[in-house]
Amino acid sequence: MKKYTLLLIVCSLFALRSSAQAPKWMDKAKHAVFSVITYDKDDKILNTGNGFFVTENGIALSDYSLFKGAQRAVIIDADGKQMPVDAILGANDMYDVIKFRIKTDKKVSALLIADNSAPAGSDVYLLPYSTQKDRSFTAGKVKDISKMGDNHQYYTLTMSLKDKMVSCPVVTVDGKVIGLAQKSSGKDTITTCYAAGASFAMSLAISALSAGNLTLRNIGIKK
Questions:
Q1: Is the pLDDT of residue 10 over 70?
Q2: 102 and 141: one domain?
Q3: For residue 109, which phi and psi values (nearest 5 degrees)?
Q4: Contact predicate 122/172, CB 8 Å
Q5: Which Pfam families does the protein's record reference (predicted)?
Q6: Would you say residue 6 has pLDDT above 50?
Q7: Same domain, residue pair 37 and 101
Q8: How far apart are alpha carbons 77 and 93 in whole angstroms?
Q9: What is the CA radius of gyration of the chain?
Q10: What are phi and psi of 115, to 5 degrees?
């Protein structure tokens, strides 16, 4: 019983310490993270997940898997406000990322995309979606970096990732986003996860040549 009580005290102290060490910018940054709900052709819930704003006029990033087969989608922000997805702006099924726009009549909190890649060994934070006013976060490190697309990065992270954290933003110590969190499918799921480069997702676009793109055609939302 004494050991159990001591363990609770230690855990409580660690939680308080983690909260106290949260950077000052985190409160504002977490308002950029939201929940996503997609609906099928029968207007039944298809998938739920996460995403985050990268511009103040409502451009956002998430994972393509959430939207595949969707006919409409909404997001719920950190204040509990629901907003509809207005248009799909680009998607890539290989890296499971999507860019879209939210219909909003005012500016939203958004994360800045890092100008440079985070080097191996650097500290990073994962910002979870929450409607509560807290500074909870998951800390980790960049383990490895590989090339993604023409000039973007795909990160291997030393970090434990729960299912409900997929597509949450991974940010640097100064609060700039480097990627969207993705789970590991191998034996190292407890200590390792990945992040698809946010700059790659932001570079996605739709052109006249996209008409036959099956990835985009699998989404019924306006392009």
A1: no
A2: no
A3: -70, 135
A4: yes
A5: Trypsin_2
A6: no
A7: yes
A8: 25
A9: 18
A10: -70, -35
Alpha carbon separation from 196 to 71, 95, 136, 144, 171 (Å, rounded)? 25, 7, 22, 12, 12
pTM of the full structure? 0.87
98 and 136 part of one domain = no
Give residue 70's identity as a one-letter amino acid code. Answer: A
Q: What mean pLDDT is predicted for residues 77-102? A: 96
**Residue 126, amino acid:** L
| 101 shares its domain with 161 | no
* β-sheet bridge partners, residue 76: 35, 82
Q: Could you tell me the CA-to-CA distances from 68 to 87, 91, 208 in Å, in that order?
A: 14, 10, 21
Mean pLDDT of 134-147: 89
Task: Count other Cβ atoms within 10 Å, centred on residue 42.
Answer: 7
**Domain span including residue 75:** 28-109+204-217
Residues 66, 139 within the same domain? no
d(CA 164, CA 154): 21
Pick from 112, 61, 122: nearest CA to 90: 61
Q: Is residue 4 part of a domain?
A: no
* Dist. CA 105–CA 59, nearest whole Å: 13
| Residue whose C-alpha is closest to residue 107's, from 83, 136, 131 | 83
182 and 166 belong to one structural domain: yes
Dist. CA 21–CA 179, nearest whole Å: 22
Mean pLDDT of 61-69: 97
Specify if 16 maps to a domain: no
Residue 56, domain CATH: 2.40.10.10
